[in-house]
Amino acid sequence: MQSTESRPIPSNVDPSEIQKFSDLAHRWWDPSSEFKPLHEINPLRLEWINNVVPLAGKKVIDIGCGGGILAESMAKRKALVTGIDLSDKALKVADLHSLETGIQVRYEKIAAESIAEKEAGQYDVVTCMEMLEHVPDPASIIKACARLVKPGGKVFFSTINRNPKAYLFAIIGAEYVLQMLPKGTHDYEKFITPAELTQDIRNAGLIVDAMKGMSYNPLTQIYSLNSDTSVNYLVACTRP
């Protein structure tokens, strides 16, 4: 169940980012809403994670879980899932959907750094998807993920590359031309190159196992995983 006790807002959070997604929280599980891209990429990222480490029976934490799309899908694969976020509204939506479906997920309002202090080394799998580009200090989140995972456990990240093509596709294309996302969803300056992410991962004591690109074809309106990391990409890591 979700914890709603009042906590001080941690330093590694942009209140405008929390508000941005809180304002849309009631539409999280509407597959035709602003969250349509998340619904469409979720099967891809779920299968990739499950192929790297079979989820059944694993203790998993999803950092920045939002309305619970990934968290709930991992729980359907028989994982024991905790989802954390700092948006009360998103967590309430996630909790309600979990009650409606009967798929059990533990949701809690807590920062990644805070839960890493309480539950260090307790998780087989840590996921942090589409979040790093929305926080002031992504390296701090990566370190928290590294603390949460057990030795030998897996950590998964996804984010957006920072280059002209990513600006064209993720902001101009997705937000303004195709209107797949609300204008202002992303800040180009917060995008993260694979080299930067890899360095932060290594600094946190993790080993990079694999990197995948994720592309969207506007003609077929289909997402796919491939080797093109120029826009969206995913990384799998291990804590040695």
TrEMBL record:
Catalysis: reaction(s): a 3-demethylubiquinol + S-adenosyl-L-methionine = a ubiquinol + S-adenosyl-L-homocysteine + H(+); a 3-(all-trans-polyprenyl)benzene-1,2-diol + S-adenosyl-L-methionine = a 2-methoxy-6-(all-trans-polyprenyl)phenol + S-adenosyl-L-homocysteine + H(+)
GO biological process: methylation
InterPro entries xrefs: SAM-dependent_MTases_sf, UbiG_MeTrfase
The protein's name: Ubiquinone biosynthesis O-methyltransferase
Top-tier EC class: transferase
Keywords, sorted A to Z: Methyltransferase, S-adenosyl-L-methionine, Transferase, Ubiquinone biosynthesis
Gene transcribed to yield this protein: ubiG
Pathway(s) annotated for this protein in UniProt: Cofactor biosynthesis; ubiquinone biosynthesis
Enzyme Commission identifier(s): 2.1.1.222, 2.1.1.64
Residues annotated to bind S-adenosyl-L-methionine: R45, G64, D85, M129
PANTHER family: METHYLTRANSFERASE, UBIQUINONE BIOSYNTHESIS O-METHYLTRANSFERASE, MITOCHONDRIAL
Species for this entry: Undibacterium fentianense
